[in-house]
Design goal:
By secondary structure, this protein is of the alpha/beta class. Helices cover 31% and strands 12% of the residues. It has two domains: 214 residues, Vaccinia Virus protein VP39 (Rossmann fold, 3-Layer(aba) Sandwich), CATH 3.40.50.150; 139 residues, DNA Methylase, Chain A, domain 2, CATH 3.90.120. α2 links the parallel β2 and β3. It starts with a strand and ends with a helix.
Length: 369
């Protein structure tokens, strides 16, 4: 068995990105040696899936750095919390979360890694912080490959989730002319594009074998996957009537048109704005971006395509491309947070394979020397 590349995952959450790099159904050419997050339930999930010696730790990354040695690694992956960069955050000035890229880069330096992969919301690339990140990378001897905003639906995820990807490589370990082209070629294409590629994967592709009607309202720990997380909610009669008033592909404006008598007054007053709120997914399209409160239709387009209910935890995990065997731990809310904050593993595998090509370039140069 060939030696695997050592991997560190920062702000790792449940480990969706790690899974794409190390999972036996995924790339599998990397070995996770250290991970860190400040969410206790996510850390437990990570260790349940990847770590016999519980090498994922719950800690504040800056506090941990002050008192611990960083293990040696080949690659550092992860994304500093994205709220500071997000366009959804209207009061961004002075947000301390912006500075979390600094301990990220400290660990890149101290680990001896020759590659880092940073994932974040698209707004990262237009922020002043990214200029600072690039300057720090330059100072540490890294070049950053031209970053890109990628749509994960183009890479086999049944979700139109867009994220910025920035990859850095140690200049002294690589020859620029040998760097593989980035971004990787898509595996799927939007159905309205003239392409020989398969069409985007759809909600139906991901969910069609699950029962239309979930059972119960709690985690079904006595059931095997996928049914363990295929549970529902207990909507009020008014909520249920609201669900029924939204047609396929509809949203809160259809609710207002069809049943103004049960439409929240604040929505009636707000005549413009998000068309995904209280929206219903389509069977024949990918999902919209899955966020942490996908179980609340008032937060986005999270109604089932045909059933009068929001999507379940298992459905959300499927739309994030998590395999059913992946073990989530924690409460319903904690697991939902882990799902919504994750990097879809199928997309992470695309990055892992690209990094393998990059590492092959590093190895070939060392042999030539």
């Amino acid at each position: 068995m060939s030696k695997k590349y050592k991997l560190i995952d920062l702000f790792c959450g449940a480990g969706g990105m790690t899974l794409g790099f190390v999972g036996h159904d995924f790339c599998g050419e990397f070995e996770s040696i250290f991970a860190i997050d400040n969410d206790n339930a996510a850390v437990k999930t990570y260790n349940a899936n990847f770590s016999k010696n519980e090498h994922c730790i719950k800690a504040n990354i800056e506090d941990w750095l002050e008192n611990n040695d960083v293990p040696r690694a080949d690659v550092v992956i992860g994304g500093p919390p994205c709220q500071g960069f997000s366009l959804l955050n209207k009061k961004r000035c002075g947000d301390s979360r912006r500075s979390l890229w600094e301990p990220y880069m400290d660990i890149v330096q101290k680990s001896g890694a020759t590659i880092f992969v940073m994932e974040n919301v698209p707004g990262l690339l237009k922020s002043n912080e990214f200029k600072d990140i690039a300057a720090r990378a330059e100072e540490l001897g890294f070049n950053i490959i031209e970053p890109a905003v990628l749509n994960m639906a183009d890479y086999g995820v049944p979700q139109t989730r867009k994220r910025a990807i920035a990859i850095g490589y140690k200049r002294e370990c690589f020859i620029d002319s040998e760097i593989p082209t980035f971004p990787p070629a898509p595996s799927n294409a939007a159905p309205n594009i003239n392409s020989n590629l398969p069409a985007w994967k759809t909600v139906k592709d991901a969910l069609q074998d699950l029962p239309l009607q979930p059972e119960g309202t709690e985690i079904r720990s006595n059931e095997q996957p996928p049914l363990d997380l295929h549970f529902g909610r207990s909507p009020t009669e008014v909520s249920l009537e609201r669900y029924k008033s939204v047609p396929p592909g509809g949203n809160r404006f259809d609710l207002q048109k069809n049943r103004p008598d049960i439409t929240p007054a604040c929505w009636i007053k707000k005549t413009s704005g998000g068309t995904d709120l209280f929206g219903r997914l389509w069977w024949d399209r990918p999902s919209v971006t899955i966020r942490t409160e996908f179980f609340k239709p008032e937060k986005g387009r999270y109604l089932h395509p045909v059933e009068h209910r929001p999507i379940t935890h298992r459905e959300a995990a499927r739309l994030m491309s998590f395999p059913d065997y992946f073990k989530f731990t924690g409460s319903k809310v904690e697991i939902a947070k882990q799902i919504g904050n994750a990097v879809p593993p199928v997309f992470a595998e695309v990055l892992a394979k690209y990094i393998l090509g990059l590492l092959a370039s590093r190895i070939s140069r060392s042999k030539a020397a």
